[in-house]
Amino acid sequence: MEITSRFIQVCIFRVVNNKDPQFLILERSSDNEMYPNIWQMLTGHIMQSETAEQAVLRELAEETALPIKRFWTVPYIDSFLDLTNNSIQLIPNFAVETYVNLNPKLSREHKSFGWFSYEDADKVLVWWGQKNVLKLIDDFVTHGMVDPNFLEISLK
Length: 156
What we know:
The chain is of the alpha+beta class and 156 residues long. It has helices spanning 52-63, 118-124, 128-142, and strands spanning 2-4, 7-15, 21-28, 39-40, 42-45, 70-82, 87-97, 110-116. The protein contains three helices and eight strands.
Protein backbone atom coordinates (compact mmCIF):
# COMPACT_ATOMS: atom_id res chain seq x y z
CA MET A 1 0.00 0.00 0.00
CA GLU A 2 1.32 3.43 -0.89
CA ILE A 3 0.71 6.83 0.65
CA THR A 4 0.03 9.44 -2.00
CA SER A 5 -1.61 12.80 -2.60
CA ARG A 6 -3.83 13.02 -5.67
CA PHE A 7 -6.63 15.27 -4.40
CA ILE A 8 -7.15 18.81 -3.11
CA GLN A 9 -9.89 20.36 -0.99
CA VAL A 10 -10.82 24.04 -1.10
CA CYS A 11 -12.94 26.06 1.30
CA ILE A 12 -14.33 29.05 -0.59
CA PHE A 13 -15.73 31.97 1.37
CA ARG A 14 -16.71 35.62 1.07
CA VAL A 15 -16.98 38.30 3.74
CA VAL A 16 -20.07 40.52 3.61
CA ASN A 17 -19.92 43.99 5.21
CA ASN A 18 -16.71 43.09 7.10
CA LYS A 19 -18.70 40.63 9.19
CA ASP A 20 -18.79 36.89 9.48
CA PRO A 21 -17.82 34.90 6.40
CA GLN A 22 -20.25 33.03 4.21
CA PHE A 23 -18.95 29.63 3.08
CA LEU A 24 -19.70 28.16 -0.34
CA ILE A 25 -20.93 24.58 -0.01
CA LEU A 26 -21.71 22.59 -3.16
CA GLU A 27 -24.26 19.80 -3.59
CA ARG A 28 -22.99 16.95 -5.73
CA SER A 29 -25.08 15.90 -8.73
CA SER A 30 -27.39 12.90 -8.51
CA ASP A 31 -25.51 11.13 -11.31
CA ASN A 32 -22.13 11.18 -9.54
CA GLU A 33 -20.97 7.61 -8.98
CA MET A 34 -19.32 8.48 -5.69
CA TYR A 35 -21.30 10.29 -3.01
CA PRO A 36 -24.25 11.59 -5.05
CA ASN A 37 -26.35 14.38 -3.52
CA ILE A 38 -24.00 15.19 -0.63
CA TRP A 39 -22.94 18.70 0.34
CA GLN A 40 -19.21 19.35 0.26
CA MET A 41 -16.42 21.85 -0.19
CA LEU A 42 -14.78 22.07 -3.59
CA THR A 43 -12.69 18.96 -4.19
CA GLY A 44 -10.67 17.77 -7.13
CA HIS A 45 -7.80 15.74 -8.56
CA ILE A 46 -4.21 16.84 -8.91
CA MET A 47 -3.17 16.10 -12.49
CA GLN A 48 0.19 14.43 -13.01
CA SER A 49 1.84 17.55 -14.43
CA GLU A 50 0.56 20.08 -11.87
CA THR A 51 1.18 21.22 -8.32
CA ALA A 52 -1.54 21.24 -5.67
CA GLU A 53 -1.82 25.03 -6.03
CA GLN A 54 -2.27 24.71 -9.80
CA ALA A 55 -4.95 22.06 -9.22
CA VAL A 56 -6.84 24.50 -6.97
CA LEU A 57 -6.78 27.20 -9.65
CA ARG A 58 -7.93 24.76 -12.35
CA GLU A 59 -10.68 23.14 -10.26
CA LEU A 60 -11.93 26.54 -9.08
CA ALA A 61 -12.20 27.72 -12.69
CA GLU A 62 -13.81 24.48 -13.93
CA GLU A 63 -16.31 23.95 -11.12
CA THR A 64 -17.24 27.49 -10.03
CA ALA A 65 -15.64 30.10 -12.33
CA LEU A 66 -15.23 32.32 -9.25
CA PRO A 67 -12.34 34.81 -9.14
CA ILE A 68 -9.85 34.73 -6.28
CA LYS A 69 -9.44 37.68 -3.95
CA ARG A 70 -7.04 35.92 -1.53
CA PHE A 71 -5.62 32.39 -1.37
CA TRP A 72 -4.06 30.41 1.53
CA THR A 73 -2.78 26.99 2.45
CA VAL A 74 -4.65 25.62 5.47
CA PRO A 75 -2.65 23.82 8.19
CA TYR A 76 -4.67 20.62 7.97
CA ILE A 77 -4.09 17.47 5.92
CA ASP A 78 -7.15 15.26 5.46
CA SER A 79 -6.83 11.58 4.60
CA PHE A 80 -8.81 8.57 3.45
CA LEU A 81 -8.30 4.96 2.44
CA ASP A 82 -8.68 4.65 -1.33
CA LEU A 83 -9.68 1.02 -1.87
CA THR A 84 -9.78 1.40 -5.67
CA ASN A 85 -6.02 2.10 -5.72
CA ASN A 86 -5.02 0.34 -2.50
CA SER A 87 -3.57 3.60 -1.18
CA ILE A 88 -3.88 6.12 1.58
CA GLN A 89 -4.65 9.54 0.16
CA LEU A 90 -3.38 12.68 1.89
CA ILE A 91 -5.41 15.75 0.94
CA PRO A 92 -3.95 19.25 1.29
CA ASN A 93 -6.50 21.95 2.11
CA PHE A 94 -6.73 25.50 0.85
CA ALA A 95 -8.85 28.56 1.58
CA VAL A 96 -10.00 30.94 -1.13
CA GLU A 97 -11.69 34.26 -0.47
CA THR A 98 -13.80 35.45 -3.38
CA TYR A 99 -15.71 38.66 -3.97
CA VAL A 100 -19.14 39.53 -2.58
CA ASN A 101 -22.21 39.49 -4.87
CA LEU A 102 -20.83 36.72 -7.10
CA ASN A 103 -22.25 33.24 -7.41
CA PRO A 104 -20.59 30.18 -8.90
CA LYS A 105 -21.26 28.87 -12.38
CA LEU A 106 -21.60 25.20 -11.56
CA SER A 107 -20.16 22.38 -13.62
CA ARG A 108 -22.07 19.12 -14.13
CA GLU A 109 -20.45 17.73 -10.99
CA HIS A 110 -22.75 19.83 -8.80
CA LYS A 111 -26.46 20.53 -8.95
CA SER A 112 -26.77 23.36 -6.43
CA PHE A 113 -24.88 25.53 -4.01
CA GLY A 114 -25.42 27.69 -0.97
CA TRP A 115 -23.60 30.44 0.88
CA PHE A 116 -23.75 29.31 4.50
CA SER A 117 -22.82 30.71 7.89
CA TYR A 118 -20.27 28.64 9.80
CA GLU A 119 -23.00 27.02 11.89
CA ASP A 120 -25.17 26.09 8.91
CA ALA A 121 -22.24 24.86 6.82
CA ASP A 122 -21.15 22.64 9.70
CA LYS A 123 -24.62 21.07 9.72
CA VAL A 124 -24.68 20.16 6.01
CA LEU A 125 -21.10 18.94 5.61
CA VAL A 126 -20.77 15.16 5.87
CA TRP A 127 -17.07 14.52 6.45
CA TRP A 128 -15.48 15.45 9.75
CA GLY A 129 -12.26 16.48 7.95
CA GLN A 130 -14.17 19.19 6.08
CA LYS A 131 -15.83 20.24 9.34
CA ASN A 132 -12.38 20.61 10.93
CA VAL A 133 -11.12 22.72 8.02
CA LEU A 134 -14.26 24.86 8.19
CA LYS A 135 -13.66 25.52 11.91
CA LEU A 136 -10.00 26.43 11.33
CA ILE A 137 -10.92 28.91 8.59
CA ASP A 138 -13.81 30.39 10.58
CA ASP A 139 -11.48 30.96 13.55
CA PHE A 140 -8.82 32.46 11.26
CA VAL A 141 -11.20 34.81 9.40
CA THR A 142 -13.85 35.65 11.97
CA HIS A 143 -11.91 35.68 15.18
CA GLY A 144 -8.58 36.90 13.84
CA MET A 145 -6.72 33.90 15.22
CA VAL A 146 -3.14 34.28 14.11
CA ASP A 147 -1.68 31.07 12.78
CA PRO A 148 1.68 31.22 11.00
CA ASN A 149 0.76 27.97 9.26
CA PHE A 150 -1.90 29.78 7.19
CA LEU A 151 0.42 30.77 4.38
CA GLU A 152 -0.96 33.23 1.87
CA ILE A 153 -0.25 32.28 -1.72
CA SER A 154 0.56 35.14 -4.06
CA LEU A 155 -1.17 35.05 -7.43
CA LYS A 156 1.25 37.48 -9.07
